Amino acid sequence: MTMPSQAIITAAKNIKLLLLDVDGVLTDGKLYYGNSGEELKAFNIQDGLGIKLLQQGGIQVGIITGRVSTLLQRRADELGINPVIQGREDKLIALRELLESQNLGLHQIAFMGDDLPDLSAINSVGLGITVANASDTLAAKADWQTLRSGGDGAVREAAEMILKAQGKFDTLVERFT
């Protein structure tokens, strides 16, 4: 994991909600279709544990994605992710609508994306995070970039960074010893 700057650590200390894009963040960004027309997605189990650690640390995890997928809803249900907002191309408008039902300011939200549809949301929140294999334009605008690619543990890396900044990581890890 890259050592975040003091500014990133300071921003991460305020995070109460991590919002995730799906394709290219929770998955590798590839679309898999079977011969019968079914869609397949692969989710990284380490990302799942990172999400659980965030939740145990008192940080809510949600999803805003442009696509609609029953597979995604299944995975979100397994992990207790809420809210799950699907089929929203304009993620900033979805984020603003979400804020109406949350008692949070933008400075308390992190958004993690990988490509141009995520840019406005990443520019608006307290901590904009992107993955190692993000588009160059998004990587240049994000506050922090993971070393891992989307679908390959990038969410876990971001989760650990946020939890360490908040001083919660070591206590959560002790449960496993």
Brief rundown of the structure:
The protein is of the alpha/beta class. 39% of the residues lie in helices and 15% in strands.
Output the keywords:
alpha/beta, 177 residues, Rossmann fold, two-stranded antiparallel sheet, 15% strand
Task: Write a structural description.
The structure is a single chain. With 177 residues, this protein is α/β, with parallel strands linked by helices. It has a single domain (6-174), classed as 3-Layer(aba) Sandwich (Rossmann fold), CATH 3.40.50. 39% of the residues lie in helices and 15% in strands. The chain has a six-stranded parallel beta sheet, sandwiched between helices. The longest helix has 12 residues, at 45-56.
